[in-house]
Design goal:
Strand order of the largest sheet of chain A: 1-4-3-5-2-6-7-8
Oligomer: homodimer
Number of helices of chain A: 8
Distance between the termini of chain A: 41 Å
Largest interface: A-B, 32 and 31 residues
CATH topology of chain A: Rossmann fold
Number of domains of chain A: 1
Shape of chain A: globular
CATH architecture of chain A: 3-Layer(aba) Sandwich
Strand content of chain A: 15-25%
């Protein structure tokens, strides 16, 4: 028997995703659940980043993870092994999640007793940026091997994120045409308020700062509820 | 003045993209133009691969490149510097090209006098796989840093491709959990006829084989026209 559910979500019937996302955000706020929408290209390191994040936070926060994928269950299995609750959401070929698909996942998951849910969105820098999932905050991961020009090519993704992790910084010596200064400047030109954190999910570099960001955001969120 | 046109393509008005793609394929065959649809994740190395491919083939083939991107013109500029014809296609936020969008690009480009057109599709492993562009053949690039599990997670992309380049093989010692055997086996399980070629666009490793594949396909295509 599997340790996690697999949910096949259906395309939203709502025409107005933005309004629906706002509604979901309010529902979650009422429950005191902070939902982080985590986006990236395929292979940027979402799951590895999550595993390390969970290891650092699971004694302090009650964490759940929703793994969205077109087809496989590779990621839910990896997450469940960290000892937190996880489900696998199958999008049935869809390249993103909207608010209602996210709600279907959360409903099956049961958010009760959780402080922090991470939605690992489909690996894609285009479509997920266009659909508000109802998340409290948006995060994305850009990995060093992808190149420092990605903010120029996928501007909407960088514009909608509250925090950008630059991952695989342990490979900067191999990808020596990647400029940390250039990528930060390009991100801030699109989105001056975005936090940019340089990390390596492999070595743990930068994770103290990333975990501090999460804890500070959750604290402010809960203070704002009172 | 720019050395390349920028085309804003419009969403297709055709309901039946498959039929339209077949029509475009026949139009191109009549003209003797081989269209290669090149797909990958953001940052897998499409443009670098193209630049090296052009350098090896431009004395033997008349090459044109259509760079599809949501927004920027970074790639068309890079290609034009190799000395071949290039245009930039802007998709207006769309995450893929369909056959009619491809046709709009080709019409503006003018395929006359070209043997080989490469369409560099939007960086995305999901949506481009779902839309036949009318190309003669489909190619994709998976880069080593993305991981060898990608065929499990984006099966449709690997199923629709005639050839898969595994790029950035010069970094295999850094990404030492990437298994060449595993990735090849996963690809062939989805698509037994796919050619898998291990390359590095940085060092040139594997490019003799890749260029041989292109020349053989173009030769067979032209023999089939007679």
């Amino acid at each position: 028997m599997k340790d996690y559910k697999v949910i096949e979500v259906k395309r939203s019937i709502f025409e107005n995703n933005d309004a629906d996302a706002q509604k979901l955000r309010e529902e979650l706020k009422e429950k005191g659940v902070f939902l982080l929408n985590l986006m990236s290209s395929p292979g940027a390191g979402k799951t590895t980043t999550l595993k390390r994040t969970i290891a650092m936070l699971k004694d302090r926060l009650r964490i759940g993870v929703m793994e969205a994928d077109i087809d496989s269950e590779v990621d839910a299995q990896a997450i469940i092994e960290t000892g937190v609750r996880a489900i696998q959401i199958h999008t049935g070929g869809m390249c993103h999640l909207d608010a209602d698909m996210t709600r279907q996942g959360i409903r099956e998951f049961g958010p009760e007793g959780l402080d922090f849910i991470v939605l690992e969105n489909v690996g894609n820098l285009v479509c997920p940026a266009e659909f508000d999932t109802g998340s409290t905050k948006n995060a994305m991961i850009l990995s060093v091997p992808e190149g420092d020009d990605k903010p120029l090519k996928y501007p909407l993704m960088f514009s909608v994120c509250d925090v950008v992790l630059i991952n695989k910084c342990d490979t900067l010596s191999v990808f020596d045409d990647f400029s940390k200064e250039a990528v930060e400047e390009r991100i801030h030109k699109l989105n001056p308020r975005a936090e940019v954190i340089f990390v390596s999910a492999k070595t743990g570099e930068g994770f103290e700062e990333w975990v501090r960001w999460i804890e500070r955001e959750i604290k402010e969120y809960n203070e704002g509820r009172q």
